[in-house]
From TrEMBL:
InterPro entries: KdpD_sf, KdpD_TM. It comes from Pararobbsia alpina. Its main location: membrane. GO terms for cellular component: membrane. The keyword Transferase applies. This is Sensor protein KdpD transmembrane domain-containing protein. Pfam families: DUF4118.
């Protein structure tokens, strides 16, 4: 994954430059204290350490500034002949070559590592944000599924307590099935699964039920109802559509 902001890991503002100046002062003071012991040995080590620390905490640009000024200070104060810039000997050449070479190498490696670290942190934040979004979506899906299940459970109980209801059907769940030839045909099993029989369901002639189920639409219908002793009488039926958060439902009942 390509992260464009991976190079912007370093803190912005003047804080890095303040610490760079402080690092130069501390490195110079420490090297001055050690001069009686070290003499001309390792004149740029303190500035190399200071540049590496600044590179790790504040980025490449302040670290390069520390290295540049540290090179001048080290050559002026700690390379013999001391406090003379006009004289250039082997010690000056060794310092001018070694300190920038090693410092730039270490600073570049630190910059690369810090960019990789910052890139990993950004990817982790994005992954966490997406994970939280997936969790919220999953919770919403579970809540919606629970609401749908409760609605269907209620609709299964409603026909048992209303004498006029013949059946309740969910048109969204009686979708057509594809046959091998490419045509769309109604699936009887799916239509039956989307139908909740009512108390009057058994009283309606089975042939009328078979005709009504695949083509049930809101409006008036005619069906033969058992009046007792095997006698069927044509009666008016009313089909109404009800829209809920769980979908649309068709309720077929006897006409009043």
């Amino acid at each position: 994954m390509k992260v464009r902001n991976a190079s912007r890991w370093a803190p912005r503002g003047l804080r890095g430059w303040y610490f760079a100046a402080l690092a130069l002062i501390v490195a110079s003071g420490g090297r001055l204290l050690l001069s009686p012991l070290l003499g001309p040995i390792m004149p740029g080590t303190a500035y190399f350490i200071a540049a590496a620390l600044i590179a790790y905490f504040f980025g490449m640009v302040p670290a390069l500034a520390v290295m540049g000024f540290g090179l001048l200070i080290a050559d002026y104060l700690f390379v013999p002949p001391y406090q003379q810039i006009g004289v250039l000997d082997q010690s000056d050449v060794d310092l001018i070559v070694s300190l920038p070479l090693v410092s730039i190498l270490v600073i570049c490696l630190i910059e690369r590592l810090r960019r990789s670290q910052f890139r990993t942190e950004l990817i982790g934040l994005v992954a966490q944000s997406r994970y939280e979004m997936l969790l919220r979506a999953d919770n919403e899906r579970l809540l919606a599924g629970r609401a749908v299940d409760e609605t269907h459970r209620l609709l299964r109980h409603l026909p048992r307590y209303h004498d006029d209801i013949i059946l309740i059907q969910a048109p969204d769940r009686r979708t057509a099935l594809d046959d091998p030839g490419g045509a769309r045909v109604a699936g009887p099993e799916r239509i039956a699964a989307a139908t909740a029989p009512g108390l009057r369901y058994e009283h309606v002639h089975s042939d009328d039920i078979k005709l009504l189920l695949p083509t049930l639409t809101p409006g008036n219908h005619r069906a033969r109802v058992d009046m007792g002793a095997g006698t069927f009488k044509p009666m008016d039926c009313i089909c109404e559509r009800f829209t809920t958060h769980a979908g649309d439902f068709l309720v077929l009942r006897l006409g009043g």
